[in-house]
Amino acid sequence: MSRVLVLLCGLLLPAGLAAAVFKCIGPQGQHSYQDHPCPADHVAHTLHGGSFSLVTREPYQLRALQDSRQQTARQAGTLQQEQAKAQQLRQRQLVQQRKHCSRLHNRHHTLQRQLSRSRSALQTQRLQSRLASLSKDLHDAACPS
After folding, report:
1. Keyword annotations for this protein (predicted)?
2. Can you give the residue ranges of every domain in the chain?
3. DSSP readout, 116-142?
4. How does pLDDT run across 11-42, given as a tens digit for each residue?
5. CA atoms of 73 and 25, how far apart (whole Å)
C-alpha cells in the first residue's frame, strides 16, 4: 500500500510544478510575479514550467548588449581602417623603392656606357670608382639585378 502511495505522489508532483507563472510589468515599470493572470493595465509575460532557467533580458540589458555590439563593430571598423592605411603605406614605400632602384639602374647603365667610351686612364679610374660606389648603393637598397 505504501508503494502505491509513493508512486501516486511521484506522478502528481510534476503536475504541480508545471504550473504557469505570470510576470507582470506595471505602468510605472514595477515587476511582479504571480500564479494568476495580470491585471488589464499590466504587460504580461507567461513563464511556463521548465523555462524558469531561461534568463529574460530587460530593455536596459538589451540596450547594453546592443551598445556593446556597436562598440565591437566600431573597433573592428577602426582596426580595418588602420590595416588599410598600413597597406597603403607599404604600397607607397614599395613604389618609392622601385623608383629609387630604377634611377640607380639607369645611372649604372649610363656610367657603364661612359666607361666603355673613356679614352684616358684617369677618366676610366674615376668611372670605375663611381661604378663601384653605385653597385654598393644598389646592394644597400636591395634592388634586384
Report:
1. Signal
2. 19-56
3. HH--SHHHHHHHHHHHHHHHHHHHHTT
4. 655 555 556 677 888 888 787 888 888 888 87
5. 33
